[in-house]
Amino acid sequence: MNKPTTPPSKQSAGIAPPKGRLGVLIPGMGAVATTLIAGVNLIAKGHGRPIGSLTQMQKIQIGNGGTPRYVAIKDLVHLAEPGDLVFGGWDITPENAYQTACNAGVLGHDMLSNVRRELEAIAPWRGVFDQAYVRNLKGTHVKTGASKMDLAKALMDDIKKFLADNDLERAVMLWCGSTEVYSEPGPVHQTLESFEQGLRDSAPEIAPSMIYAYASLMCGIPYANGAPNLSVEIPALIDLANRKGIAVGGRDFKTGQTMMKTVVAPGLQARMLGLEGWYSTNIIGNKDGEVLDDSGSFKAKEVSKGRVLDSILQPDLYPELYGDYHHKVRIDYYPPRGDAKEGWDNIDIQGWLGQSMQIKVNFLCRDSILAAPIALDLILFMDLAQRAGLSGIQEWLSFYYKAPTMPDSQEPQHDLFVQHLMLTNMLRALAEEEALDQSDLGENVEKLIVR
Known about the structure:
Elements: E1 22-27, H1 31-44, H2 54-57, E2 59-62, E3 69-72, H3 73-76, E4 85-91, H4 97-104, H5 109-112, H6 116-120, E5 125-126, H7 148-165, E6 170-175, H8 192-200, H9 208-218, E7 223-225, H10 235-244, E8 247-250, H11 257-270, E9 274-284, H12 287-292, H13 295-306, H14 308-313, H15 319-322, E10 326-333, E11 342-350, E12 356-364, H16 367-387, E13 392-393, H17 416-430, H18 443-450
């Protein structure tokens, strides 16, 4: 039986407190961003609860042995309050946050009317856009410049003005923009020097999201990537983050179908049930679905989704069970569905004596409703990491991503339950509490323990 919750005994004195308000800079003020902003304001007014947010609702065990305590995460570590968040961002269309939220159709007009004034006050700044990277959208509200470096400097000017206008000392940037076409790191991405020269030369290999990430880091602001495309995850920008002591992370919010895979697959592996095939298809009708209707953007998402199973099932250790399964992923754009995504999985498994069985999962979810609490948690945790001096890649936040970025070419962990342990043990370490498991938690925890 769970013991009653008691207040935490201490919080690390080495972490700077979250003094003042926290700026939230969002490239891509679409359905996810406006659902997040509307939700934060609605919750503050008592019109909803932050369901799905670990920072706001979860309690974790503190202490081993027979008398553990259960403490809310927000009471265990120094987190910014959602009411202290100040939002701003960019988009390639000019509609304010209220107009965008109404068009997205995630939340009803009856809910949005309660926060109309707050949403109408947030109008996006002109965004950085390149048609080659998002082929199915048209930008009507975009920045111009003689080079990509000029565009980066324009973003930095936006950031500095936002901080000054709102009297902010801290901010976090969270990419909520569309999925860009699939790409891999090339020569221009390898060093900071080659990347900055590429910006000056307007190198076509530099995507808009990379320009945002560069601007964020140059302004000393943590950056997290919520999409599957390359953004901050290139060597040049990881090096910049490490040089400047800035926290970074990504990539691709783990919301619907992949979340279910990271729940079901560990169960199959734990029971030593074989896998013959896993067929996954999605139908979605929002802007994300429209963007993914392009083969280049879909490939980025396909790669992000496709790496999950091998990591969990370990076919090299269990080739007779997982060495030859067929994994198929599809995403179909279906406009009538809007933001109400349907993920359908057919899983062909083997049991005793090789006998075939099936599992079928039909997840009728709402994409932005699942993504908004992830976005809130990442904003608060990235700010925490920055104040705690945890620079570079924050692999302890892998829980939130489909394709977690890892330092030093390490393979990511995809098992949701192992990821959750990584997350909660980092929080225990930040609160100077004992970890519940002594497994390898990555270099950031090591740095913290040494400190």
